[in-house]
């Protein structure tokens, strides 16, 4: 019995390299899903519109779905590229350490493969942390920097979400977390999302179903759990240098963010000299999804030459 349970858990955490991709991203519009191979791993992404490239980076546990309201709105002005980052969504989840430097290697390799020498980079939550890392270690690859609800220095001091704090500090092995998620995850999903979203009416059955399917992707939790392990590396290598960012920077923050409350945004704004700080009312941790009307207007205004 014990061996059977272990075998089941290993299957749940196995990597699904090069499993079939759905042909379409169905949100407010219908967009084809593309993929490229970067360092022998598949990266799934959306690529819509023409013009100056804009790269949209999702946060911890997220996927390209967090940018569904930006595809049509921004693609009328820019080339909008939205990847599922390595270890997330429809992209591969290889057995690597997911250190910040590895995530940057995949991001730079992704840009190289798509022949994008430079882009405006927009990151939400921990995607903002990756955008900060790109601006610091590869400054010529970033033309304009936009950070949405993340990522401040001293992350754990600012972090208010109980669910995310547990995820980042757990000592449980990934197979056990995956097995627990398989058994009980759907029961906890809505309460967890309520920490991220201000208006619970937005958590429709369709949204919950989509989130539930995303969390069930094999290999996801093993990749996610490494983020907490590697957070000290981000704090050591990137956080002390945030003040040296010289890119034109916009910081957007949900006024009702219960993951990184508003003082975290104020702190990031004070650290990056010359940055523009905009508060998004009636919004939680993912304002580009919750208040796209306001966020898209700010993005287009800031990104236009």
In short:
The chain is α/β, with parallel strands linked by helices and 305 residues long. It has helices at residues 2-13, 71-75, 100-113, 126-137, 155-158, 162-169, 174-196, 205-215, 220-237, 262-271, 287-290, 292-303; strands spanning 24-26, 30-32, 34-38, 41-48, 53-57, 79-83, 119-124, 142-148, 248-254, 276-280.
Helices and strands, with pairings:
Blueprint: H1 2-13, E1 24-26, E2 30-32, E3 34-38, E4 41-48, E5 53-57, H2 71-75, E6 79-83, H3 100-113, E7 119-124, H4 126-137, E8 142-148, H5 155-158, H6 162-169, H7 174-196, H8 205-215, H9 220-237, E9 248-254, H10 262-271, E10 276-280, H11 287-290, H12 292-303
Parallel strand pairs: 5-6, 5-7, 7-8, 8-9, 9-10
Antiparallel strand pairs: 1-2, 3-4, 4-6
Note down, in words, how this protein is organized.
The chain has helices at 2-13, 71-75, 100-113, 126-137, 155-158, 162-169, 174-196, 205-215, 220-237, 262-271, 287-290, 292-303; strands spanning 24-26, 30-32, 34-38, 41-48, 53-57, 79-83, 119-124, 142-148, 248-254, 276-280. The longest helix is centred in the middle third of the chain and has 23 residues, at 174-196. By secondary structure, the protein is an alpha/beta fold. It contains twelve helices and ten strands. The radius of gyration is 18 Å and the shape is globular. Mean pLDDT is 85; it is low at 1-17 and 172-185. Strand 7, helix 4 and strand 8 form a beta-alpha-beta unit. It has one domain: Alpha/Beta hydrolase fold, catalytic domain (Rossmann fold, 3-Layer(aba) Sandwich). The chain has an eight-stranded mixed sheet with strand order 3-4-6-5-7-8-9-10, with helices on both faces. A two-stranded antiparallel ribbon has the order 1-2. Helix 7 (174-196) crosses helix 9 (220-237).
């Amino acid at each position: 019995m014990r061996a059977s349970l272990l075998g089941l858990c290993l299957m749940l955490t196995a990597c699904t390299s090069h499993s079939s991709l759905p042909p379409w991203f169905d949100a407010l519009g219908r967009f084809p899903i593309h993929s490229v191979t970067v360092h022998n791993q598949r990266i799934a992404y959306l690529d819509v519109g023409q013009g100056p490239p804009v790269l949209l980076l999702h946060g911890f546990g997220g996927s390209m779905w967090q940018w569904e309201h930006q595809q049509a709105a921004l693609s009328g002005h820019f080339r909008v590229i939205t990847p599922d980052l390595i270890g997330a969504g429809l992209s591969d989840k290889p057995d690597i350490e997911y250190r910040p430097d590895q995530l940057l290697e995949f991001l730079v390799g992704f840009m190289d493969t798509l022949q994008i020498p430079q882009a405006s980079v927009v990151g939400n939550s921990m995607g903002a942390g990756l955008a900060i890392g790109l601006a610091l270690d590869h400054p010529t690859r970033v033309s304009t920097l936009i950070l949405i609800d993340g990522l401040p220095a001293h992350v754990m001091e600012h972090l208010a979400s109980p669910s995310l704090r547990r995820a980042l500090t757990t000592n449980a092995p990934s197979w056990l977390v995956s097995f627990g998620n398989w058994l009980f995850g759907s029961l906890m999903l809505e309460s967890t999302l309520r920490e991220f979203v201000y208006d619970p009416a937005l958590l429709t059955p369709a949204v919950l179903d989509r989130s539930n399917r995303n969390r069930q992707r094999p290999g996801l939790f093993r990749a996610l759990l490494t983020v907490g392990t590697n957070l000290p590396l981000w704090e050591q290598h990137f956080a002390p240098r945030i003040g040296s960012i010289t890119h034109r920077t916009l910081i957007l923050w949900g006024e009702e963010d219960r993951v990184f409350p508003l003082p975290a945004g104020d702190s990031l704004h004070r650290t990056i000299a010359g940055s523009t700080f905009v508060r998004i009312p009636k919004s939680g941790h993912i304002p580009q999804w919750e208040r796209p009307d306001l966020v898209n207007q700010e993005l287009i205004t800031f990104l236009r030459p």
